[in-house]
Amino acid sequence: MYSTRYFLAAEHQLTKEKGPIRLTSAQARLTQCYYLLTQSRINHCWSLFGTVSHLILALGLNRTTRSAKINDQSRAIEVECRRRTFWCAYTLDAFLSVALGRPRSFHDDDINAELPACLDDDELTKSRMTTSRTLPSRMFAPLAHIKYAGFHLAHC
């Protein structure tokens, strides 16, 4: 019940957007896609995902850019969010392709984005990315999911 309310609130907010495409726009729409899957509305999800994939490609999330390689510590969280957003979309693209028997939106030849870091959310800070854990990272599962979805890169 509350999830529907949040979906509609996100939709309302997104319709009021003006100006350039932002990472938060792609993230909000990607979240809506996952919501639609929970409601067994896979065709609506696929339709919305077409917009999401175009936004992601327009933002260049599928590519590692020079600015993403800069060791500017103040951008560490943004760079990690870009990576995580792209790879979430990549795995959803693979799922929708298999489930619906339709072509994928992302092609491996167009991708050189780095995988997300093997860091839990609480290990990300604006000034540094650190790890001091004794247990395995929660990011091992999403990284394995990315590989399972079909992209074969080594991860940390």
Question: Key terms for this structure?
Answer:
156 residues; mainly alpha; 6 helices; 55% helix
How would you describe this protein?
It contains 6 helices and no strands. The chain is mostly helical and 156 residues long. Helix 3 runs antiparallel to helix 5. The longest helix is centred in the middle third of the chain and has 25 residues. The radius of gyration is 16 Å and the shape is globular. The termini are far apart.
Summarize the helix and strand pattern as letters.
Answer: HHHHHH
Overall geometry: globular
- The overall pLDDT average reads 82
Major sheet characteristics: none
Uncertain segments: 152-156
Q: Count helical runs.
A: 6
Rounded to the nearest angstrom, the radius of gyration is 16 Å
Proportion in helices: 55-70%
Structural class determined from secondary elements: mainly alpha
Distance between the termini: 39 Å
Number of E-type strands: 0
Fraction in beta strands: under 5%
